[in-house]
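User: Working on a comparison across species. This one is IraD/Gp25-like domain-containing protein from Psychrilyobacter piezotolerans. Can you predict its structure so I can line it up against the others?
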Amino acid sequence: MTYTLEPQNKINLKATGNERILQNGRNILSVIIGEVILARGIGINGDIVDSPLNRSAALMDIQTQFKKFEPRLKIHKIAYITDHQRGSLKPIMEVSIVE
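Assistant: Here's the predicted structure for IraD/Gp25-like domain-containing protein from Psychrilyobacter piezotolerans:
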């Protein structure tokens, strides 16, 4: 089964099973490295945030983060919603849960 992930700042502390795995993926997309106090390495590289239209750097960063912090999610596709006025990319991912 495939799921769609995008950045989201809403956290369900009672999430379990597949919902918790998917929430972990959304969290990776939602924070910048250094923001999570007890896990300083998790999140998107701040340098990419400062120059967000660099899609290839963002793609590599997201793949690295998922391999390291949530290997239970397999990435099938990463697309971006581009906001040229703000100079930002919003990743939208298609993933599946590795059993």
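For your comparison, note: DSSP finds three helices and three strands in the chain.

User: Helpful, thanks.
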